[in-house]
Amino acid sequence: MTFLDIRGVTKRYGVTTAVDDVTLSVAAGSRTAIVGPSGSGKTTLLRLIGGFEAPDSGQMTLNGEILADGPAIVPAHRRSVGFVTQDGSLFPHLTIADNIGFGLDKRNPDRPQRILELMDMVELDTVMLGRRPHQLSGGQQQRVSLARALARQPKLMLLDEPFSALDTGLRENMRKAVAAVLKQAGITTILVTHDQAEALSFADQVAVMRQGKLVQAGSPRTLYLNPADRTTASFLGDAILLPAELGDGWIDCVFGRLSSATNKRRGTAEIMLRPEQLKLVAVPEKDATAAPDSNIGYGKVIDIEFGGAVCTVALAIVGNHGTRHGQTTSPVQIKCSAVNLPATGDHVRIEVLGEPHIFA
């Protein structure tokens, strides 16, 4: 069931269109990640949802109630929306208890108990209640910020790159902890991030923005394996982009002839493979160069960039797949596991797992 409905929303700042005719639906209790490069409009869209900005046109509804109809909006404080920013925005002069309880009525006798419940929910020790924000670590401050946002039991939680200032290991742990808290509370959540791995692991739905427009939205798996275009493909992870020739149930490319559902398409096209779809198997040089099977791709390792768990292998394609239109194909950069990594100078057979994605 659609919980947040955004229809044709546009926001301009002078001659600059920050959000351009965006339409997006968010299901109740789900987690949506909005991703895109700097200046793509993702934070502006989040601020429009939160009520901190008014759209020039378009409509937004939350659980059937209109939040914005063009410039006419419901103010932020009346939207039942929680907001967690990158720096947490805690009040430095207040204790942790008063930061968490800031939005709660001080005359309510249940206020102290509610603060304790929120501390427990975000897994903070109650010994921190009397401390000030500067006495906490970055991760602890973000937990306090989340607890404060949860205090008023919002219907929708907005997270604006809340983990970006944290160290890598802590960032992953915080992301998992926050996801667990929000899932337990049953709160619909929208996360804005520039980190594609964060978006793919956190969300049920990923929305990709570019130059103010919504380029594609769908499940993380759908966007990763079937991106709308080459820019989206590369933004969401390492991608191998290749020219290819399409036939009836097959694709010819530098990696050989691959089985694929081409849906009656013929002729030239661009395809995408993810690095994990490729497997390099060392073979004797004569197998790779002596009239190799036209359906199999072979290559020679010309360089290796060691990167720990993941290494980059530069591969010169050999055999009849190594030329296109009479010209030698440029070396292909492939990211491989460090396990069973071939050596520079080795000849390899290229095995492709699964089907490539064909761009429209």
TrEMBL record:
Domain ABC transporter: 4-236
Protein's UniProt name: Iron(III) transport system ATP-binding protein
Alphabetical GO biological process terms: quaternary ammonium group transport
InterPro entries linked to this entry: AAA+_ATPase, ABC_SmlMolc_Importer, ABC_transporter-like_ATP-bd, ABC_transporter-like_CS, ABC_transpr_FbpC, P-loop_NTPase
Family membership: Belongs to the ABC transporter superfamily.
TM region positions: none
Species name: Phyllobacterium myrsinacearum
Domain of life: Bacteria
Cellular component, GO, one term: membrane
The keyword Iron belongs to this UniProt entry's keyword annotation: yes
UniProt GO MF annotations: ABC-type ferric iron transporter activity; ATP binding; ATP hydrolysis activity
UniProt cross-references to Pfam families, sorted A to Z: ABC_tran
PANTHER family with a match to the protein in the record: SPERMIDINE/PUTRESCINE IMPORT ATP-BINDING PROTEIN POTA, SPERMIDINE_PUTRESCINE IMPORT ATP-BINDING PROTEIN POTA
